[in-house]
Amino acid sequence: LNQGIVLRRKETLANMCDERARMLQDQFNVSMNQVHALAVLVSTFHHEKHPSAIDQKTFGEYTERTAFERPLTSGVAYALRVPHSKREQFEKQNGWTIKKMETEDQTVVQDYIQENLDPAPVHDEYAPVIFSQETVSHIVSIDMMSGKDDRENILRARASGKGVLTSPFKLLKSQNLGVVLTFAVYSTQLPPDATPEQRMNATLGYLGASYDVPSLVEKLLHQLASKQTIVVNVYDTTNRSAQINMYGPDVIDTGLLHISNLDFGDPTRKHEMHCRFKQKP
Ligand code: WA2
Questions:
Q1: 150 CB under 6 A from ligand 1?
Q2: Is 153 in the pocket of ligand 1 (CB under 6 A)?
Q3: Whose CA is nearest to atom 15 of ligand 1?
Q4: Looking at domain 24-216, does it have CATH number 3.30.450.350?
Q5: How far apart are CA 40 and CA 60, in angstroms?
Q6: Residue having the nearest C-alpha atom to atom 14 of ligand 1
Q7: Pocket flag, ligand 1, residue 144 (CB < 6 Å)
Q8: Which protein residue has the closest C-alpha to ligand 1 atom 9?
Q9: Which residue's C-alpha comes closest to atom 13 of ligand 1?
Q10: How far does the centroid of ligand 1 lie from the alpha carbon of residue 279, in Å?
């Protein structure tokens, strides 16, 4: 094959891939900022106002009406930090018990109804969801610290004060791999150089957004007329020797491959977009 043609093919693939990666990264960044702003909203109107100006109805309506500002997210929710000493009072006040997240038996996922869930076993503290966007109302009352991925994310979010991302995992009520983004909400104006311990002690709750990656990336790429030309995969490459395919088909080698870097704002997680032509030249 003519060398000039090969070169041009390479360049075309690189341009298409970089453009798509940039789009995905930009949209993710936009929604991350908006989720951060929601955490500030909860802090201002729920925790700093007495009585609170936010209840489930207000939160549900507001987050539904502003969903367009959070591209790629499938829903947002707020989990309150409840120490064990306050559990009984909290449950009495709300009229429901804190539930345990069930993830073992995926057949139960279809009828994942709060009433069927077991109470959370005794722990030092809990993170029950008290407010949710309608799209994720199935997580209300569930202790987010009882799920491994959510728990790690919560601990990292409150120690760092930054937006943190989980590895890809199977979200509740979804058949797909997704990720959760979490921001901690604090009680006092913390200095920017606050220690992890100061942050931990000042933590009031956790604002989180879930991303159903395959369906949301599909929607995004669909807007571009390229589906006949290239195949796109999105990988979590945090663990180089065990990359996780978050979006796209199992790979068939058609020769050229271009890799575009993706930065989702959490330096502890690495992501890449891999692009190939559908057909060999
Ligand atoms: N949100 C939606 N679906 C899920 C999920 C989740 N976590 N975990 C498993 N499936 C309220 O970090 C706090 C959201 C957790 C935030």
A1: yes
A2: yes
A3: 208
A4: yes
A5: 16
A6: 208
A7: yes
A8: 171
A9: 208
A10: 39
Structural domain spans, the chain: 24-216
CA–CA distance, 274 with 246 (Å, rounded to integer): 11
Nearest in space to 163 (alpha carbons), one of 208, 210, 217: 208
CA of 137 to the centre of ligand 1 (A): 11
ipTM over 0.90: yes
For residue 87, CA distances in Å to 25, 39, 82, 153, 222 come to 40, 23, 6, 22, 46
Q: Which two tokens stand for residue 78?
A: 């707020």
Residue owning tokens 């978050």: 246
Q: Give pLDDT tens digits along the chain (281 positions).
A: 689 999 999 999 999 999 999 999 999 999 999 999 999 999 999 999 999 999 999 999 999 999 999 999 999 999 999 999 999 999 999 999 999 997 655 445 555 667 788 999 999 999 999 999 999 999 999 999 999 999 999 999 999 999 999 999 999 999 899 999 999 999 978 998 999 999 999 999 999 999 999 988 998 888 887 767 899 999 999 999 999 999 999 987 778 999 999 999 999 999 999 999 988 77
Backbone angles phi, psi at 112, to 5 degrees: -80, 85
CB distance 39 to ligand 1 below 6 Å: no
Tokens representing 227 are: 């589906």
Q: Phi-psi region for residue 279, left (φ > 0), alpha (ψ -120 to 50) or beta?
A: beta
CA-103 nearest atom, ligand 1:
9
Assess whether the C-beta atom of 142 lies below 6 angstroms from ligand 1: no
